């Protein structure tokens, strides 16, 4: 059954013209900082996506979209994100933030 689902997913991806093989790596994977410290989280991806997103998730809550970028930089309050789709990376800069989980994601072409 797993093999059949995998084949169906591959066929769907081919019909939609998107890659199902996108690999996204976030670093550091885990980080502890003292209150008031600034940090940078990086995200690299294997294929050039259509767009890029950063999310925040507080304990016991759902994902909150922070930034949706197709290129360039966005800044909001204590957060700033830079994305370069051609070089396949993005960085999230956080100035003195509460304890949260931050996650990056890509929208395939």
Please provide a written account of the structure.
The chain has 109 residues and is mainly beta. It has one domain: Immunoglobulins (Immunoglobulin-like, Sandwich), CATH 2.60.40.10. The chain is built from 1 helix and 8 strands. The strands form 2 sheets. A 5-stranded antiparallel beta sheet has the order 1-2-7-6-5, with no helix packed on it. The longest helix is centred in the N-terminal third of the chain and has 15 residues, at 2-16. It is globular. Mean pLDDT is 78; it is low at 4-10. It comes from Vombatus ursinus (Common wombat). Pfam families: V-set. This is Ig-like domain-containing protein. Residues 1-20 form the signal peptide. It is found in: Cell membrane.
What is this structure's SSE topology?
Layout: H1 2-16, E1 24-27, E2 38-45, E3 51-57, E4 63-69, E5 72-76, E6 79-84, E7 89-95, E8 101-107
Antiparallel strand pairs: 1-2, 2-7, 3-4, 3-8, 5-6, 6-7
Q: Kindly, what is the distance between the CA atoms of the first and last residues, rounded to a whole number of angstroms?
A: 28 Å
Give the amount of beta strand, in percent: over 45%
Q: Name the CATH superfamily assignment.
A: Immunoglobulins
Please bin the fraction of helical residues: 10-25%
Q: Under CATH, the topology is which?
A: Immunoglobulin-like
Using only C-alpha atoms, the radius of gyration works out to 16 Å
Strand order of the largest sheet: 1-2-7-6-5
What is the CATH class name?
A: Mainly Beta
Order of helices and strands: HEEEEEEEE
Domain module count: 1
Mean pLDDT: 78
Please report the total strand number as a whole number.
8
InterPro entries: Ig-like_dom, Ig-like_dom_sf, Ig-like_fold, Ig_V-set, TCR_alpha_variable
Protein name: Ig-like domain-containing protein
Subcellular location: Cell membrane
Keywords: Adaptive immunity, Cell membrane, Disulfide bond, Glycoprotein, Immunity, Membrane, Signal, T cell receptor
